[in-house]
Amino acid sequence: DIVMTQSPDSLAVSQGEGATINCKSSQSILYTSNNKNNLAWYQQKPGQPPKLLIYWASTRESGVPDRFSGSGSGTDFTLTISSLQAEDVAVYYCQQYYSTPYTFGQGTKLEIK
Amino acid sequence: QLQLQESGPGLVKPSETLSLTCTVSGGSISSSSHYWGWIRQPPGKGLEWIGSIYYSGSTYYNPSLKSRVTISVDTSKNQFSLKLSSVTAADTAVYYCARSSRGAQDYWGQGTLVTVSS
């Protein structure tokens, strides 16, 4: 199985400031045939299902604010929130869908400082 | 707007079989572009992918659960189902059904809590 490791486990950022969450896979999740990284980011608020934010490591899902961006390739990936809003308080998960079993990171809890 | 809704018992006894159904509305489960799957989340913990199914019936399972899991599809009812046998307390979780597009899960049900207890 591909192991996904996120850092940090928790993060407190002032409103309006930027936040960065990292995700590392135990092996490359880049499909060389189409040059796409099979990596997604999800946001989960209490009592709600996860919401897809980013797929293919850097493509924003329709309707997701542009303050959310994804980057990285191969084994190292980053989710960046450019200006934290109160509604961004949540747990964030990365997921690889390069090979089954699809696996998630352990989650990063983002709070307002 | 596509919607997914899980249904099934909220309480299952140890050693019995957990059975859940996901009803898809606002779209066809027979779409050639999508897979349909199950993900679970134990209380206060992270997400675990259980498995996926294509409308044709092709399945992919998590090897950690493979011996106990069956996912099936009923295109006539626009539903797909999960069966997990020989459950223990470790199977207590919120179970989500979801659609996969381009691999990532883009639509999720609200989830249903299944507790394993006698």
Could you name the key traits of this structure?
heterodimer, A: 113 residues, mainly beta, seven-stranded mixed β-sheet, four-stranded antiparallel β-sheet, B: 118 residues, 11 strands, 0% helix, 53% strand, globular
Structure write-up:
Chain A has 113 residues and is mainly β. Chain A is built from no helices and 13 strands. Chain A has strands at residues 4-7, 10-13, 19-25, 30-31, 36-37, 39-44, 51-55, 59-60, 68-73, 76-81, 90-96, 103-104, 108-112. In chain A, strands 2, 6, 7, 8, 11, 12 and 13 form a seven-stranded mixed sheet that branches. The mean pLDDT of chain A is 97. Chain B is built from no helices and eleven strands. In chain B, a hairpin with a 6-residue loop joins β4 (34-41) and β5 (48-53). The model of chain B has no long low-confidence stretch (mean pLDDT 96). The interface between A and B is medium-sized, with 23 and 22 residues.
What level of helicity do the residues of chain A show?
Answer: under 10%
Largest sheet of chain B: 7 strands, mixed
Structural class of chain B: mainly beta
Oligomer: heterodimer
Strand portion of chain A: over 45%
Element pattern of chain A in H and E: EEEEEEEEEEEEE
Count of individual beta strands of chain B? 11
* Largest interface in this structure: A-B, 23 and 22 residues
Shape of chain A: globular
The parts of chain B where pLDDT drops under 50 for at least 5 residues are none
